[in-house]
Amino acid sequence: ILLFPAVYRRPRIMASILKVDTLTGVTTAGSISVTGEGNSTTTNLQQGLAKAWATMNATGTAALRDSFNVSGLTDNGTGDFSFAYSSNFSAINDYTAGGMVANTSNANTSYLFQPRSSTLLITSSARMSMKYNTASAEGMADYAYGATTMHGDLA
């Protein structure tokens, strides 16, 4: 009797859609590890997410264009803005905040959107400055487009 081995067929891999409302870690509910770039390390999903962000128009009456976890914007003067959070960060000065300004008026000018000082990154808000810098001058100004993101641990 001749026995022929069963022909092994690899399962066909098909694209699929996963729809869920909540992802929860197995060991710790708020911690989910994902494989990082290069498939050699893992990274914590929650640590890599922006916890707050906003886009704004600072000309005229300053206003948010769109935001996430930002409950309000305060115009403190030329180039000086405060962003209030809907959900607070866990500790003062224990998160990052940075941003960018888009302006097309002068190609030889650099623009910054940064915290006014580390003491103004408090758990409930961040005070930020829109600045310009040329070879001969620097200062604060209001621009039509500014964007900021905040990363860190929420309370």
- Report the radius of gyration as a whole number of Å: 23 Å
Averaged pLDDT, please? 87
Number of helices: 0
The ordered H/E elements are EEEEEEEEEEEE
Largest sheet: 6 strands, antiparallel
The proportion of residues forming helix, as a percent range, comes to under 10%
The N- and C-terminal alpha carbons lie at a distance of 72 Å
Unreliable parts: none
**Coarse morphology:** elongated
Secondary structural class = mainly beta
Q: Which strand-content bin applies to the residues?
A: 35-45%
Quaternary: single chain
Number of strands: 12
Characterise this structure.
The chain has no helices and twelve strands. The protein has strands at 33-35, 42-44, 52-57, 63-68, 70-77, 80-85, 95-102, 110-115, 121-122, 125-133, 138-140, 145-152. A hairpin with a 4-residue loop joins strand 10 (125-133) and strand 11. The termini are far apart. The model has no long low-confidence stretch (mean pLDDT 87).
List the helices and strands and how they pair.
Blueprint: E1 33-35, E2 42-44, E3 52-57, E4 63-68, E5 70-77, E6 80-85, E7 95-102, E8 110-115, E9 121-122, E10 125-133, E11 138-140, E12 145-152
Antiparallel strand pairs: 1-2, 3-4, 3-12, 5-6, 6-10, 7-12, 8-10, 9-10, 10-11
Identify the notable features of this structure and list them briefly:
mainly beta; 12 strands; 155 residues
Summarize this entry quickly.
This protein is 0% helix and 44% strand. The protein contains no helices and twelve strands.
